[in-house]
Amino acid sequence: MTTDLPDYDDLPPAAEGGRSAWGLFGADDNLGLVNLLTPERVVAAARLIRKGTVFPLDAPVDAFSPPIAVTRGVPRHHLLHVPGTFAFDDVYDNFFPQGSSQWDSLAHVGYAPDAFYNGATEEDVIAGRRLTMEHWARHGIAGRAVVLDMVATLREAGRPYDPGSRTEFSVEDLELARRRAGVDFHPGDVVIIHTGFARWFLEQSVSARLAVQRSMTTPGIAQSEDMCRYLWNTHITAVASDTIAVEAFPADRTRAMGFLHRILIGQFGMALGELWWTDNLAADCASDGIYEAFFASAPLNAPGAVGSPANAVAIK
Amino acid sequence: MTTDLPDYDDLPPAAEGGRSAWGLFGADDNLGLVNLLTPERVVAAARLIRKGTVFPLDAPVDAFSPPIAVTRGVPRHHLLHVPGTFAFDDVYDNFFPQGSSQWDSLAHVGYAPDAFYNGATEEDVIAGRRLTMEHWARHGIAGRAVVLDMVATLREAGRPYDPGSRTEFSVEDLELARRRAGVDFHPGDVVIIHTGFARWFLEQSVSARLAVQRSMTTPGIAQSEDMCRYLWNTHITAVASDTIAVEAFPADRTRAMGFLHRILIGQFGMALGELWWTDNLAADCASDGIYEAFFASAPLNAPGAVGSPANAVAIK
Amino acid sequence: MTTDLPDYDDLPPAAEGGRSAWGLFGADDNLGLVNLLTPERVVAAARLIRKGTVFPLDAPVDAFSPPIAVTRGVPRHHLLHVPGTFAFDDVYDNFFPQGSSQWDSLAHVGYAPDAFYNGATEEDVIAGRRLTMEHWARHGIAGRAVVLDMVATLREAGRPYDPGSRTEFSVEDLELARRRAGVDFHPGDVVIIHTGFARWFLEQSVSARLAVQRSMTTPGIAQSEDMCRYLWNTHITAVASDTIAVEAFPADRTRAMGFLHRILIGQFGMALGELWWTDNLAADCASDGIYEAFFASAPLNAPGAVGSPANAVAIK
Amino acid sequence: MTTDLPDYDDLPPAAEGGRSAWGLFGADDNLGLVNLLTPERVVAAARLIRKGTVFPLDAPVDAFSPPIAVTRGVPRHHLLHVPGTFAFDDVYDNFFPQGSSQWDSLAHVGYAPDAFYNGATEEDVIAGRRLTMEHWARHGIAGRAVVLDMVATLREAGRPYDPGSRTEFSVEDLELARRRAGVDFHPGDVVIIHTGFARWFLEQSVSARLAVQRSMTTPGIAQSEDMCRYLWNTHITAVASDTIAVEAFPADRTRAMGFLHRILIGQFGMALGELWWTDNLAADCASDGIYEAFFASAPLNAPGAVGSPANAVAIK
Fold it and tell me: C31 CB near a chain D CB, below 8 Å?
């Protein structure tokens, strides 16, 4: 079923703008484009493990403090002596799976009120009946990663760029980065967009971080139908970044495609990765000129969960 | 440095029994035998990805309820509406990183009071200065997995076996399972011991589970110096199981080697994985006769943490 | 309505044993016998404030550790610096309102499955529609307290008594203590039964406390229909103690009245106070011979809550 | 010791402005002006219980949502089935003792960095050695309450007033309210200032509440040395209000007395009550013309805690 996905313009229109991929993997599907991660693609991706270098892609769980989204929080960690031993246990409270490097499950954002990916309802999500994190966890996410280094791309293009600004990356910008990287996209790819935002944020003072919390200003992909068409037609599984929302934020909700999550998650069933730690991987790509890698992630096997730490490694 | 680890009997004796590997990777080492996961070994292990099947090794985070260790708990999950949107977030409280499928960090159990792996003190652990989970998280854990199916081994040997009993697996038992699997151990291996305990537990009634909580009875490897010698001399990195403690429990603390965690973690710096979901992987090994796999885990990047979900996949 | 409550034997029989007070305060009542705390009784009780001594009745919130009920826990406390100031805030996780000195709301225990006080259903409790703590919180609990010192009573009667044992106090024992105290019961009274258990528990070693956790052994009132008749016919509002359950525990569920909570809470709508710190108050009563006091409590205004800290003072 | 407190102008000057009451109750004192609640004053206050009406002063623990202080949160409540019974327990996470109607302990705000009331250090607070909530909890807070209704006072004075504004109440305004109420202040009084803010906030939309969260705008007492002198010279124990900070907020830190908490808590050892639910009490005072009441509070017996729910009742 996965070999011949239709083109974007052949998808049926969605009721409130954009195109709909609902039903492509069956009415009961809870995986979305993770379905594209077929055994053949896993085997092919394994050949990218050439030098044996492992790049963990998760920032510390408590790195983003104060939290960028005010409705999330920083985990509270307790160390516990195991009674009667010389051993320790520990426990977390206030652990927001989306508080640091993370996956959005397909239950995170709907296309419209009460209309989540593949026709799931709010009640389906609340009851943990559809789309929540355990579906990806039971499948695993393994395949090929491709790195688009927007910092290097814009620098080489002579364009000024501030990773703390609301810079929009257009389809042309992504294509520029892809050609620079010397890679094609393959179906099932995990596309990793390095913007420099996460490192920039971690270097700011507390008051500067609070200003980011207030404004939510971050760079990211442009909100346009061109972008939707482009991302769909590549037939990738996931797009991840070192920003809070992959798309430029705050979303400009006055535009038809003003909040891409609605389409990417709610219609396409695409996996979005956010606040990933991409610096080490991007630096290695710059160093050896190879912008593809094997990718493996074990999302938290958390029934009913909306988000998960990324739990991801790229291996070159 | 990792190519010529001494034999067990060439290690210096430890003060309170067993042998000591402190200092082998330097006085400041916080990784222990994870150091054995060299790039060469990662590349070699990648060749084990032959059919592209991914086996997530994490049970659901809330599966073990009531908790087997009474001092741990079941996570509390809250779904949160994102104000003014049709989106959800979520948050966990009472999230015990060791409550389900998990890694013990080297900070979990010491060799003796105030004497943790490589000479770290209790204060080092409490302050998060040594041994805690972020060290493995920044390194990543990738390499070769080998599966020892004790259920099938004992069955084929005609020995009665109850996965809810305190059955000890001797060195000879493990060797029987290894030979049956047709594999050798390689330095850096993650040895996965399938006992059937986790599945058995999940099939019990609440009152039967509470009886397990009270007695902590579980099968596992035998507590003996032979076992220490065997596990060290294989030069493996990790041993994981679908039980609460890898070793048979409750520990018989009257024996010299009565609580193996002290030696394996506190002296060897070996990674222990517990309560892993090994059923699907073991079934596949039984089906295709191949008991080795590529292995990747991204432990939670949790500074100062004692434990982490396993976040692990095996790929064949 | 509150002046002429029927006698126990004039109440209609309840379906599964005992008598039923459902409907006495109206079909929608959520207060139970707290209705008896009329303004006249508050004014009368205020006259008991004679020397101005205040007796807080709450033990520390973290005193009972390990928790006596294994399904409850000890609160986790976090001190937080208020950013940019020389001020502190704090926050609790794992805060069990019934973990230390506490009130059982009428939502805590039903008379039978799905049959809570006054006909409320499980769904009413889960939805916070009936019986939960905010009802008492909005009313306040103020009136007269009477102290029954069982330790002194049994000692003076020459009866051996171990506050760590499952000693049952019969109606005759309570009457002995009442006469010794020189008090009558008045409608609306809060009867405080001092058994010495809480102090005893706090003086035990950790392993002795764990033995209590396992067996739940505590002294308390006897489980009998005589006891139900006696407590109802006094027309008191509340009975509180320095034990985990007011009644002797573990409950002997083989008896018809084997678990008094079912009748006292589920049928009578009586307020039960548990694990109160009664030592200072009992010592003062022994010293001045006055076993009555003004009583005031502000249960936590916690919508939908099952329990609350006692938040109580007696004033003599 | 409590009968002859010096006048404000006879107190020694404090190093960074204002006057210091450190040492008045001894070098080890942890109670501050709660010391003024002597038995005689409790007995005298009990005579104010004339009609037996009880006014709980705590708003619901989850009422202020989103939280007015962004660094606090709304409690998360979990209902738990008690296994094998028809009973419920419950547990809170993210329980901020200062999230709703509350007391500031003397550990909440210092006079200067590392200089808390009576010379306590930050380390004293962090270690729970000084000033934290258990001291007041073990003493209890009972005495006389006096109500100042600023809403009615300003209305009768013909002054426009918006409870959502940063209105400052001057000494003259408080005096006007006091004379209007026909009361004198007595040593040890709990002065309750009704501003209408809490009710106003609870009637706002979510977006209007978020605007309050952003600006922290609330009415309250004026930040001036006159106010300090006035409040000290009354020799009251506590001042409470239905606002977030008693004083007008945000504090104007450019003034010498720009943040009154520093003086009132950090120098005077005065008890501050915030976000109390004063509407019912104020309405009753308006109705019967009596602006004094008996007051009782049992602060949470929370060792090391900075704040507590108010747990307070006024009784007339």
Answer: no
CA of A310 vs chain B CAs: smallest distance (Å): 9
DSSP C4: G
In angstroms, the CA B169 to CA B222 distance is 5
D205 inside 8 A of chain B by CB: no
- Share of chain D residues as helix, strand and coil, in percent rounded to the nearest 5: 30, 20, 50
Which residues in A204-230 are b (16+ Cβ under 10 Å) and which e?
eeeeebbebbeeebbbbbbbbeebbbb
pLDDT of residue A70: 83
Q: How far apart are CA D96 and CA C78, in angstroms?
A: 10
**Chain A partners within 8 Å of D94 (Cβ):** 93-94
What is the C-alpha separation between A104 and B310, in angstroms, rounded? 20
Contact C299, C137 (CB under 8 A): yes
Q: How far is CA C203 from CA C64, C206, C230, in A?
A: 11, 9, 33
CB proximity D78 to C under 8 Å: no
Query: Who among B83, B84, B93 is closest to D76 (CB)?
Result: B93
Residues of C in contact with B73 (CB under 8 A): 73
The whole-number pLDDT of residue D263 equals: 97
Contacts of C66 in chain A (CB under 8 A): 83
* Cα A315 from Cα B142, distance rounded (Å): 9
Distance (Å, rounded) from C-alpha D90 to C-alpha D80?
5
Residue A61 or C70, more confident: A61
Of A70, A93, A94, Cβ closest to residue D70: A70
Average pLDDT, chain A: 95
Percentage above 70 pLDDT, chain C: 99
Question: Considering only CB atoms, which chain C residues are within 8 Å of B214?
Answer: 214
Question: For chain B, what is the mean pLDDT?
Answer: 95
pLDDT band at A308 (very low <50, low <70, confident <90, very high): very high
A174: closest CA of chain B, how far (Å): 27
CB distance C91–A83 less than 8 Å? no
Q: Count the residues in chain A.
A: 316
Please tell me the distance in Å from B94's CA to the nearest CA on chain D: 9
C151 touches chain D (CB under 8 A): no
Top residue of D65, D79, D93, D210 to mutate, by most chain B CBs within 10 Å, is D93
| Residue D298 · residue C56 · CB < 8 Å | yes
Determine the distance in angstroms separating the CA of D214 from the nearest CA of chain A, rounded to an integer. 9
Chains contacting C (3 or more CB pairs within 8 Å): A, B, D
Q: Please check whether residue C206 touches A, CB under 8 A.
A: yes
> H/E/C letters for each residue in chain A?
CCCCCCCHHHCCECCCCCECCCCCCCCCCCCHHHHHCCHHHHHHHHCCCCCCCEEECCCCCCCCCCCCCCCCCCCEEEEEECCCCCEEEEEEECECCCCCCEEECCCCECCECCECHHHCCHHHHHCCCCCCCHHHHHHCEEEEEEEEEHHHHHHHCCCCCCCCCCCEECHHHHHHHHHHHCCCCCCCCEEEEECCHHHHHHCCCHHHHHHHHHHCCECEECCCHHHHHHHHHCCCCEEEECCCCCECECCCCCCCCCCCHHHHCCCCCCEEEECCCCHHHHHHHHHHCCCEEEEEECCCCCCCCCEEECCEEEEC
Q: Which residue of chain A has the CA closest to C93?
A: A93
B66 → chain D, closest CA residue: D83
Residues 6+ apart with CB under 8 A from A122: A110, A113, A114, A116, B86
Confidence band, pLDDT 50/70/90 cuts, at residue A258: confident
